[in-house]
Specification:
The protein has 417 residues and is α/β, with parallel strands linked by helices. 51% of the residues lie in helices and 7% in strands. The chain has 19 helices and 6 strands. α11 (215-229) runs parallel beside α13.
Length: 417
C-alpha cells in the first residue's frame, strides 16, 4: 500500500462486523504515514465500530494532538469514552487517555465553538479568491441604467464623504445584484471593486458550506476576518440564495443551515467586529429564495436588477469575443438586432459556434477561413436565449408575490416583452 493512500469506505465497515483484514491494512498504512490524519481518523472509526474502543481512543487522541477541533476524532472520543465508561473501569481513564499530551476535548458543541472564538482566521487566503481587479465600470458596455443606479446608491456617497455626512447617508449595508443567469453580475461586482480601488474577494457556495456541523459558520467568520485584514475590500458572495436561504423553507433537519444564515446575519451586522471599509456585495438568480432577514436595513438593503444586455452592451460583448480572431465582412450590429433578450453567456456561445464553423472550414480547405457574417448568422440561429425559464418563474413572483416591492424594477421589462 502506498503511504498516504486513503482507502474507500465500504458500506458497513464501521459496524461491529468490520473486516479485521481491512483494519489491519489501514493500521499498516497509518504506521507507514503517521501524518495522514484523515486515514488515522478512519482507522479510529473502524476500531470503534468493531468494539475496540481503547485502541480507537488512542488513535483519536493522536489526531487531536495535531488538530484539536477535528470533528471526526471528537466524535470517536465521545463514542469511545461513553462505551468504555459504561463497562468495567479502564486504565488509564478514558478522558485522560484522550487528553494525552494536554489536548483539551470539549464536552459540548458550545465548548467547541468557544475554543474557536480565541483562534485566528487563516493567515493566507485559504477560502475564496482575493484579487486586485483591473476592470472598471467603463469596461462594462452599455447598461447605462445599471451604472446610474450604482453611481447614485453606492459610488457617489462613497466618493463624497463630506456630502454623505451632511445628508446623513450611511454606507452600512450591502448590495444585492439579482437577475437571470449569465448577464454579468459577477463582472459588475468586480468592476465596482475597481472603481473604489478595493481588493475583490470572491466567495462561492463551496467555499462556505461544509459537511461538518459548525464548520460552515467558522468558514464564514474566517471569510469576514480575511476581508477585514485586506480592507478596503469588496466581499462578493455568489449564489447567496444557497448560503442565506429562507429558514422557513428549510426542512426539519435543516438546523445546520439555519446556523449558517444566523452566522451570516451576525457578520453583516458587525456586532462583534468592525466592518468599516468592507463593502459586501452578493449575487443571486433566485431572490425569492433569499431569507427576508438578509434584505433588512443594514444588511443587503440595496438591490439592483441586472437584466439581459441592451443593444450597446450586446455589441460590446460580441466585439470582445470576436477580438483577436480572423474575421471578414462581419456586421456585428446586424447580429445585435436579432439577439434581443439574449444573455451575455448566450452571445459568447454564438461567437464560439461561429469560430468553430470557421475552424472546420479551415481544416477542410487547408487554409485559414476567417469568421464570416454567415457563420455568425448560422450560429445565432442555433443558440436560443437561455433566460426564458427564469423569466417565467420571475413573472409569477413579480405579479403575485411582490409584497416588499423587490420586483418593481422587473415589471416594466416584463411588460415590454
Amino acid at each position: 500500500m502506498v503511504p498516504g493512500t486513503i482507502l474507500p469506505r465500504v458500506p458497513g465497515d464501521t459496524g461491529d462486523h468490520a473486516d479485521p483484514g481491512l483494519i489491519a491494512a489501514i493500521d499498516a498504512a497509518v504506521a507507514a504515514d503517521a501524518t495522514n490524519l484523515t486515514l488515522r481518523c478512519h482507522l479510529a472509526e473502524l476500531l470503534a465500530g468493531a468494539g475496540r474502543h481503547a485502541e480507537a481512543l488512542a488513535h483519536a487522541a493522536k489526531v487531536l494532538q495535531a488538530a484539536r477541533d477535528h470533528p471526526g476524532a471528537l466524535r470517536v472520543v465521545t463514542e469511545a469514552t461513553s462505551a468504555l465508561g459504561a463497562g468495567p473501569p479502564a486504565e488509564p481513564e478514558p478522558r485522560e487517555a484522550a487528553l494525552g499530551a494536554g489536548v483539551e476535548v470539549p464536552d459540548t458543541a458550545d465548548e467547541l465553538l468557544g475554543q474557536w472564538d480565541g483562534t485566528d482566521a487563516p493567515s493566507g487566503i485559504d477560502i475564496g479568491e482575493l484579487t486586485a481587479p483591473s476592470v472598471r465600470l467603463t469596461d462594462v458596455g452599455g447598461m447605462e441604467e445599471v451604472k446610474r443606479r450604482l453611481e447614485l446608491s453606492f459610488l457617489a456617497p462613497l466618493r463624497h464623504p463630506d456630502l454623505r455626512a451632511q445628508f446623513g447617508k450611511s454606507m452600512r449595508g450591502g448590495l444585492l445584484l439579482w437577475g437571470p443567469p449569465g448577464c454579468g453580475k459577477t463582472f459588475i461586482a468586480r468592476a465596482l471593486a475597481g472603481e473604489v480601488g478595493a481588493n475583490f474577494y470572491e466567495v462561492g457556495l463551496t467555499d462556505v458550506l461544509d459537511m461538518w456541523i459548525g464548520s460552515s459558520e467558522r468558514n464564514l467568520r474566517a471569510i469576514f476576518d480575511t476581508a477585514r485584514r485586506n480592507r478596503p475590500c469588496v466581499l462578493f458572495f455568489d449564489e447567496i440564495d444557497a448560503i442565506g436561504q429562507k429558514r422557513t423553507a428549510l426542512r426539519a433537519g435543516g438546523t445546520a443551515m439555519r446556523g449558517v444564515v444566523n452566522q451570516l446575519l451576525a457578520e453583516l451586522d458587525g456586532a462583534s467586529s468592525d466592518n468599516e471599509s468592507i463593502f459586501v456585495l452578493a449575487a443571486t438568480n433566485h431572490p425569492w429564495d433569499v431569507d427576508p432577514a438578509l434584505l433588512r436595513p443594514g444588511r443587503f438593503d440595496r438591490t439592483l436588477l441586472v437584466l439581459p444586455p441592451d443593444p450597446p452592451a450586446r455589441e460590446a460583448i460580441l466585439r470582445l469575443h470576436l477580438s483577436g480572431k480572423p474575421t471578414v465582412g462581419v456586421d456585428v450590429r446586424r447580429i445585435v438586432r436579432s439577439t434581443e433578450g439574449y444573455s451575455g453567456a448566450d452571445l459568447a456561445l454564438i461567437c464560439d459556434h461561429a469560430v468553430e464553423r470557421a475552424m472546420e472550414a479551415s481544416l477542410r480547405s487547408g487554409t485559414v477561413h476567417p469568421v464570416t457574417q454567415k457563420d455568425l448568422i448560422d450560429a445565432a440561429g442555433e443558440v436560443r436565449p437561455s433566460v426564458g425559464p427564469w423569466l417565467d418563474t420571475a413573472r409569477n413572483f413579480a405579479l403575485y408575490g411582490n409584497d416588499g416591492g423587490i420586483y418593481d424594477d422587473l415589471l416594466p421589462y416584463l411588460k415590454r416583452r
